[in-house]
Automatic annotation (TrEMBL):
Keywords: Signal, Transport. InterPro entries: Bact_solute-bd_prot1 (IPR050490), SBP (IPR006059). Residues 1-33 form the signal peptide. Coiled coil: none annotated. Belongs to the bacterial solute-binding protein 1 family. Pfam families: SBP_bac_8. This is Alpha-glucoside transport system substrate-binding protein. The keyword Aminoacyl-tRNA synthetase does not apply. Gene3D superfamilies: Periplasmic binding protein-like II (3.40.190.10). It comes from the Bacteria.
């Protein structure tokens, strides 16, 4: 357990980060940047990002990078890889992976063709890759770049058994609720700061004739994110850490309290678009787009998810800052939660080219390229705020860095993949069942504890 002084410091840091984020989100959001914000191809050149990282010449070398990213996220990352190719002479191929990526990699390893580098979205997956002997430690150059640009907390998440395996190239702020501005205007609804105010706002939206919430229940990870924000704010960071490590059981009263709180939304008749059945058939992208399409009569007025929802908002034909606005996840307890997620670059084939790519991805130059394209946050503390294409993303980035070593990483991503990251199993399945029957708090706790005990081996 942490000392009392550390717990108080952690609460203060979270509160400060939440306050900074709240201030950021009261700004009038702009669209995702103008042509003046970007280089001609939408990215930053090495010169613009103040290139300083030293990379070897790799003419004739080739390597593969696997990730589950699709759409704009994949396209933007490919621009980063293109800069690496330009600077080294190497040829990089992006390999689309499927969730859970650890299973995808297992099939590649079994076939003798693993990718050189994989972008792993869970610390639990990094540990599995290490335990299976797939992952290779970072070399001296990558370590030097990582230590120069990342806080100790972000370094430690990618460390297993005292060795550094992961470079957290991408981060996410998972403590946001996006809303249809026209729906709020028509309803006379205001941005809530507390959970009680959120319920009042939801009722106001409902009374105006629009379903309050869109929930992407077809993908269990969105439901774990709901739980984590409620739990962190209500139970506090110390309990959050204990549950993340399974040092306390899922039958703990703090879990009961969080599930009971969640049921105030999930179990409220007509508060979720399509009801539980409809939500369980709605994937994450659709949960966002159905909130911002349909004029002033969309399927829902609000949708919870991270900063990355901006990509889907734009795909819905809505303008961020005008049609779509956002507020921090409301405080259930003493302060609003700040939950982060991320994707780490992990080397599977230890070669000069793979080590060079890890080094590049640990540099501010690589992150700056993708930052300028929008829909992306980096935990790299040396990426300039000006690299982000609008004031809100700049403030989100600032809040992420300001949290320092006391941020809280997505809890399910810290768990073994079998419990926290597999479709149709573990925590994802248990919370999908809870969405279907939010009165079954005790049964859900028992199911969660059974799955966690098996996955953690205790």
């Amino acid at each position: 357990m942490r000392s009392t002084s550390n717990t108080i410091r952690t609460r203060r840091t979270l509160r400060a980060a939440a306050t900074l984020l709240a201030g950021a989100l009261t700004l009038s959001l702009s669209a995702c940047g103008s042509d003046d914000d970007k280089s001609s191809d939408g990215g930053a050149t090495a010169e613009e990002s103040g290139a300083s990282v030293t990379l070897p010449k790799l003419d004739g070398k080739s390597l593969e990078v696997a990730a589950v990213w699709t759409g704009a996220e994949q396209a933007n990352f490919k621009k980063v890889l293109a800069e690496f190719e330009k600077r080294t002479g190497a040829k990089v191929t992006f390999v689309p992976a499927q969730d859970p990526i650890i299973n995808f990699l297992g099939s590649k390893v079994a076939g003798g063709q693993p990718p050189d580098v994989a972008m792993l979205p869970q610390p639990g997956a990094i540990k599995q890759a290490v335990d299976k002997g797939w992952a290779k430690p970072l070399g001296a150059a990558a370590l030097k770049e990582l230590q120069k640009n990342y806080s100790q907390g972000w370094q430690d998440i990618g460390k297993i058994g005292g060795k550094q395996y992961g470079v957290y190239y991408k981060a996410a702020n998972k403590s946001l609720i996006w809303y249809n501005a026209k729906v709020f205007e028509n309803a006379g609804a205001s941005e809530p700061k507390t959970w009680a105010e959120l319920l009042t706002t939801a009722q106001t939206v409902y009374d105006s004739g629009v379903t309050p919430f869109s929930v992407g229940g077809a993908e269990g990870w969105t439901l774990t994110d709901w739980f984590e924000n409620v739990y962190l704010s209500q139970a506090g960071p110390e309990k959050y850490d204990q549950l993340a490590k399974h040092e306390i059981k899922w039958t703990d009263p703090s879990v009961k309290a969080a599930l009971t709180t969640l049921a105030q939304v999930w179990g409220k008749k007509d508060y979720v678009a399509g009801g539980a059945v409809g939500a369980l058939q709605t994937d994450f992208p659709a949960s966002v787009t159905q909130t911002f399409s349909g004029g002033d009569q969309p399927k829902a007025g609000m949708v919870y998810e991270g900063d990355f929802a901006q990509v889907n908002i734009v795909q819905a034909g809505a303008k961020v800052g005008t049609d779509a606005k956002v507020f921090p996840f409301p405080a259930v307890g003493d302060s609003s939660p700040v939950v982060s997620g991320g994707d780490a670059a992990v080397i599977l084939k230890d070669s000069e080219a793979a080590q060079a790519l890890a080094t590049f991805l640990a540099s501010p130059e690589a992150a700056t390229i993708q930052a300028k394209l929008g829909g992306y946050l980096s935990p790299n503390k040396n990426v300039p705020e000006s690299a982000y294409p609008n004031p809100v993303q700049q403030k989100m980035a600032k809040a992420l860095i300001a949290a320092g070593d006391d941020f809280r990483f997505d809890m399910s991503d810290q768990a073994p993949q079998a419990f926290g990251g597999t479709p149709g199993k573990g925590e994802w399945k248990a919370l999908q069942d809870f969405l279907k029957n939010p009165t079954n708090v005790a049964g859900t706790q028992a199911t969660l504890e059974s799955g966690a005990a098996a996955a953690y081996g205790n």
